[in-house]
Amino acid sequence: MMHIFNLMASFWLGRLSLKALPPNPIQWFGASLIILVPGMIAVLLTVTKRWKWLYKEWITTQDPKKIGVMYILVAIGMLLRGGADVALIKTQQALSVGASHGILSASHFQQIVTAHGTIMIFFVAMGLMFGIINLIVPLQIGSRDVAFPFLNATSFWLFFFGMVLVNASLVLGDFAATGWLAYPPLSELRYSPTVGVDYWIWSLQIAGVGSLLAAINFIVTILKMRVKGMNFMKMPMFVWSVLGSMLLVAFAFPILTATLTLLALDRNLGMHFFTSGAGGNMMMYVNLIWAWGHPEVYILILPAFGVFSEVVATYSKKRLFGYTSMVWAIAAIVLLSFIVWLHHFFTMGAGSDVNAFFGIMTMIIAIPTGVKLFNWLFTMYRGKIRLDSPMLWFIGFVVIFTIGGMAGVLMAVPPIDFQLHNSLFLVAHFHMMIVGGVVFADFAAITYWFPKIFGFKLNETLGRWVFWLWLVGFLMSFIPLYILGFMGATRRLDHYSASLGWQQLFIVSGIGAALIGAGVGVQLLQFAYSIYKRKDNRDKTGDPWDGRSLEWSLPSPVPFYNFARLPEVSSRDAFWEAKKSRLKDRRKYEDIEIPKNTPLAFMIAALAFIFAFTVVWHIWWLAVIALLSIITLIIVRSMDEQTDYILKASEVEKLDSLYLKGAKL
Amino acid sequence: MLRTKRRWFVALALIVIVVLSAIYLANVNIPILEPKGVIADKEFRLLVTVTVLMSIVALPVFGLLIYIVWKYNEKNHTKKKYSPDWESNKFIEGTWWAIPTILIVILSVITWNATYALNPYNPIASKNSTLNVQVIALDWKWLFIYPALKVATINKLMLPVNTPVHFYLTADAPMNSFWIPQLSGQIYAMPGMQTQLYILANQPGEYNGWSANISGIGFAGMMFKADVVSATQFKAWASRTVSSAPALSLARYNSLIQPSAYVKTRFFSNPATNIFSQTIDKYMVADYHGAVQ
């Protein structure tokens, strides 16, 4: 009888059972947060009677501006989650010395480290980047929409449900304890038999497919939807950098998808692509994952460079210096980023010729990066610099990125890398590049473009506090890690012996992390306070910073159709030139095609989540149903020929005059 | 007035931090900067050379940044030096394509030569004959086998000073990275594969070693000591161990591969022949993690 019951349960529920619930208090706490936070949001929506609003305005929307806002909201939420991971990691490393083993078990610590890396890269850095791209690229190229609005919504919801799947692992089962790139054979079934690695694989699969679709969308948008007159060499530098980044996504993410699929085949169907025996080769995985992973770094950093190109020019009231050089620098980085991946594992014992080639290729990337840096400096030279917080983020970026970049060149020399690889020196290096580079740029971008999207400015005083807390906390957190690296401290250690003398530096680093945490706290306060005081900081002109590119020609917040009348472009910095010329406006209103709202994108992504979740838990019957439903929905959508509606020219004119009077619609 | 005061305060705080850091750094042991072996020493010198070369180009960037931000701040602004439409100068742009390029060319030559010179597979010339050591990364400890001396150890690497050592490495566990920072850089130890590493320790002493690549829950407990002693002490240790320590039979090896971490030093005599090659070979056949036959 029991036997039949077990058989039934394993058919209907796969590996899922009560044992999947969290085993200890810290994990219980994490799990309850993951349930409570969405729960509270749900209660809030019910109390304020906003479910319908949520459905009509957000879940079914195809407006890239709203999708951009949702990307950024998810990313901020995940910044808090990844930050909570940091708090646990730093506490453990400050306490787990000698006889004490700290507050976390080794397995739990390793899961947290893995989750921190995965979440910060895929759901914070990528989320902020795609959010800003969605908000700004269509506006800067004078377009009313992206090329494929439905695809865009699907990309976002895939990203969203990838995030949900990562967090589901806190409540049911466990997460990978392998490090964020899950090298086999450790990530193979033999050494990681639980659902952890499966959660990792499938959340990245969903989010990764979303990224790939988004990249195709933005490549086509930039190539085909620029306003008349804006040829390639007249595009804003941010658009160029996004084009470079999205080309990288389009070429790199399929490698990720394929690699994860091979690992999933190993784990689920007993294949031997990367196992330690039977012809499997773990170094094949390491090569493949970095063939995606290194371009990924540039996928994140290129749009960051683009943001700073916009910010520096605007706040220096001067044209961007060396535009052509900047474009070629981006092109060089795009090409080079695909031929350096092996520098992530010089220590595998390859020959000198292989290591020397990849080492030198890596160094060559420093050239275009250096050129960009000099061009920004010379954009400020003979300018009129206003040191608002986006410029502070830029200056912080230059300092941190230069230090981190020098550390990077050091590690590009293979014999030096033998001594620094996998140490905390490496950890300090890439945090300086990704936080000091990407995240600082994203914060600058949020402050800079916030009034354009929401119609009011963020509080500057609090913004400065945020910057200084982040900068001081960041240096305090990561300079000690360089020293610890020289002391031989390796990454992902949940314990070390007291005689090594590492504890003091780990504590200093932990205090630095706490300062960053305070910075994040002030950041949330800044949002709350600015919303509260929004009437005082309203942006009535649409051009609060004396901007240069087309988005500043629009009223703030931008109407849902973006441009009532399409702008005329005949030079770079189109809006700056238009402000100077004062020519008479002869543009006419015309009918505008607007995509209708649809829940299908959300539904497809939700089904993808069900598919992934059921594959993780081996609930095969439901996985098959989910997969078939996705295919059905795609067919249904493809058959729908009335996906747009027309906004009449007279209607546009009426709305436009209201917007220009400052009405909030 | 308040601004000036604040500036003084910040400057003072920075000076205090720099001085305290300098005192701290002068008083702690920083293994990579204090090499005790010829390879680690060459790697350290290379590190210094490259750092100095980079600083020549990178440090002026900081100076330029501070100067430009101060000079062209709108508060210090005069109309004369503002040129809003100045956007290109082929000579200036050419200069900063050229400066980093020259630096990178110099660094590339250094890198090319150093990569060949410090290939871990290069034998080290010495009047003393080379000692062969087989290294197997287990779950979660290190097994060192000295085939010629018929001894083996767990988590203790006994080495004679000024003698080249030739390591052959593999793993009977997930991938690990073998690293003794004061003696040389690291190299991966992978199941089913063999890597090699030559080192030469030129000062007696006890040095820390560990795995630099995550390999499971016991990974932090893979620490071992490398004990560099004189040639006579080394010989005495080897003969003592051969005569007194228990034998490393296949059965004992097969019990050692069971997971355990933070394992204390253990010595063995007469390791069964071919443990190392059989450990590699067993992965050729299947995804096999069982006993060596």
Overview of this protein structure:
The complex is a heterodimer of chains A (665) and B (293). Chain A has 665 residues and is mainly α. Chain A has helices at 2-13, 25-47, 51-59, 64-95, 106-140, 149-171, 196-224, 237-269, 282-316, 323-336, 352-364, 366-380, 389-412, 414-420, 424-454, 460-486, 503-532, 574-581, 600-616, 620-639, 649-660; strands spanning 592-595, 644-647. The longest helix of chain A has 35 residues, at 106-140. Chain B has 2 domains: 2-117, no CATH class; 131-285, Cupredoxins -  blue copper proteins (Immunoglobulin-like, Sandwich), CATH 2.60.40.420. In chain B, 41% of the residues lie in helices and 22% in strands. Chain B contains 6 helices and 11 strands. In chain B, a hairpin with a 2-residue loop joins strand 1 (131-138) and strand 2 (141-146). In chain B, helix 2 (38-71) packs antiparallel against helix 3. The interface between A and B is large, with 97 and 97 residues.
Distance between the termini of chain A: 65 Å
Number of helical regions of chain B: 6
* CATH fold category name of the largest domain in chain B: Immunoglobulin-like
Low-confidence stretches of chain A at least 5 residues in length (pLDDT < 50)? none
Q: What percent of residues of chain B adopt helix (DSSP H or I)?
A: 40-55%
Would you list the SSEs of chain B in sequence order as H and E? HHHEEEEEEEEEEHHEH
Uncertain runs of chain B are none
